[in-house]
Amino acid sequence: MPVYVVTGANRGLGLEFVRQLSQSTDNTVLACVRSSSSDLADLKQAYKPNESNTHVLHCNTGDLSSIQSFAKEVQKTLGGDRKIEFLINNAAVNSKPEQTSLSIGPDDLTNEIRINVLGPAKTTEFLLAEGVLAKTARIVNLSSGLGSMAVSLGIMPRKCATYSISKGALNSLTVQQSGELREEGKLGPKCVVISIDPGWVKTRMGGEGAILEPKESIGGMLKAIHGLGEGDNGKFYTYTVSRSAVELKSSVFFSLLDLADADPDKAMSDDLPHPLTEPVKDGMPARPTPALDRDGHPTTALAHTAFLEPIERACRT
Ligand SMILES: NC(=O)c1ccc[n+]([C@@H]2O[C@H](COP(=O)([O-])OP(=O)(O)OC[C@H]3O[C@@H](n4cnc5c(N)ncnc54)[C@H](OP(=O)(O)O)[C@@H]3O)[C@@H](O)[C@H]2O)c1
């Protein structure tokens, strides 16, 4: 009976995580919501097939005392013996997509860092302190293409500065956690921490113009998450679209990519739209292609890929 924790579970991708995880009565799901008073009708409907193994817990990931109480509640709910195998730090905001690097609202950036970075950091820290994370835990930080330096470099005009900065910081957090949680006395060498970009998905954040249905994105992510091995620790996975299927492939953090020569036409010419080259819709940015060939390997157009790791295992929906 694996135990999953999903933050931001009342709508969007968090809700779809719960819906798909509830298809198996083997799963125990701790579905976390910002406010227990908000409308939870969709969530209740989503976990109906596995009602007896689902627990709705209150966790405002922008509030340290709320996360602290939540971690204690998890300990009580699991009763000491059972541990969390999958922690999905999904809750986030993109509240000021119109802001650019020259118009950042200090309070807005602080708010996004608080929810999008400190939230996953403290959720992980406090759950660790309560002793409820399994030694083999998979900790999944929901990032964004906008958290990638390489992708952001190719977006003109630049978009969603505050959100992008917060997701870049989240990726850095993943790298930090992936090292520290492996230390003796913490989780040890078998835990895995990753960042993952769900693709451009039709949710309130993604908007109606997005290209993926939540079902596709979550189906692919769950496959990838379930297939994670110890060697995946610290990596950043992103959705790509291949010839006939949506795949998840790994990318890297903070690589010095010079996309100036990248020719999107030389990249995968697919019958499906490519999320990295879609035009701006509903405030979400176009995502530049990192110029991959049909097998997902970087082409020579990426001239300065000093730190680019090989593209890894794909996961088809
Ligand atoms: N959709 C996309 O295209 C896309 C693309 C790249 C990355 N992402 C990432 O994927 C994740 C899910 O996004 P989404 O599209 O599902 O967004 P969404 O539709 O806006 O849903 C966001 C969820 O996060 C919750 N949340 C926000 N602030 C919270 C807080 N302080 N405490 C607890 N919960 C909070 C919301 O709860 P309330 O209802 O209470 O506000 C909601 O459940 C996010 O990390 C996002 O950055 C999404």
From TrEMBL:
Domain of life: Eukaryota
Molecular function GO labels: oxidoreductase activity, acting on the CH-OH group of donors, NAD or NADP as acceptor
Assigned keywords, A-Z: NADP
Record field: transmembrane: none
InterPro entries in the record: NAD(P)-bd_dom_sf (IPR036291), Sc_DH/Rdtase_CS (IPR020904), SDR_enzymes (IPR052184), SDR_fam (IPR002347)
PANTHER family linked: SHORT CHAIN DEHYDROGENASE, SHORT-CHAIN DEHYDROGENASE/REDUCTASE SDR
Annotated protein name in UniProt: NAD(P)-binding protein
Protein's organism: Friedmanniomyces endolithicus
